Amino acid sequence: MAQALPNGTADGSDCRELSALLRTWWEASARGGAGKPTQATLARKIGVTQTTLSRYLNPAHPLAAPPDAVRALHTVLGAPPDDLPAALDLARSARAAAGQRTATAQAPRNHDPHHAAPEAPDPREAPRRGTVRRALLAAALTAAVLITGWTATRGALDPATAEGPRTSAGRATPVAPDWPLVRRGETSSLAWTVQRLLKAHGHTLRTDGVFGPETRAEVVAFQRRHGLQPDGKVGRHTWRMLTVPAAPGDRGPHVEAVQDLLQRAGHPADITGTYTAATRQAVRDFQQRHALPPTGTVDEHTWRSLTTAPPA
Description:
Elements: H1 13-27, H2 39-46, H3 50-56, H4 67-76, H5 83-105, H6 126-157, H7 189-200, H8 213-225, H9 236-242, H10 253-264, H11 277-289, H12 300-308
Helix pairs in contact: 1-5, 2-3, 4-5, 7-10
């Protein structure tokens, strides 16, 4: 297992430690006489710019890599399996610390005695400001009427964009984002999910988290078998055919996919392939956070929310 730098106390220590670990993976990736991949090649494989990747791998001026990028680098570079949990923990804590520093930097400075107070308004400007405000208010009301009419017409003509079903209290049920589009070159939990769901349908392929030629060929075969357009891309219609319900007591690669996506969304779940009581509770917690019925089972709506949830 690669040795990470010791934790420090200064701001950004987790970020530097993560960057050092990722660079160790990269440096150690040369095997069998072949050199390590160039940063340009590696950036293309994980779907970021070369400049961004360079920051991920530079402990002197680091940029906190998100968990998905860490997983992708771990897979592409063939890093030691035991390194991944520690790297993901560093990624989450580094990004949390960065967010906290940003919030602090943007906080109001009213407590600063050297911060100049706003200049008092000129009384002579009041009549002119009142006229401008009235004109702006009239324009805003007109725009609101036009937008309301346009939205109502669009909803009537396009069922796909119409408001979702209403609850007994009269409030509209939240509508989940549309399914993600996953295609060749994807290196994230979504690629793992596609591969595991293909295996759940009886396809034989490697589950390595890289949407390469083999995965695309299996997607095409799946689409042909189900009467879908065989374009090799996993979009809305393919997802609906590919996902299968998952419930307590289930076993198999589709359960592994659920557990991996739960972990990606910040709900700890061991990837065992067995739908345990702990998995059910993690699913319930996820459903409650995303305004879904907390059934503890994974239906189409929960699958769609899991695949579109941002990485934690």
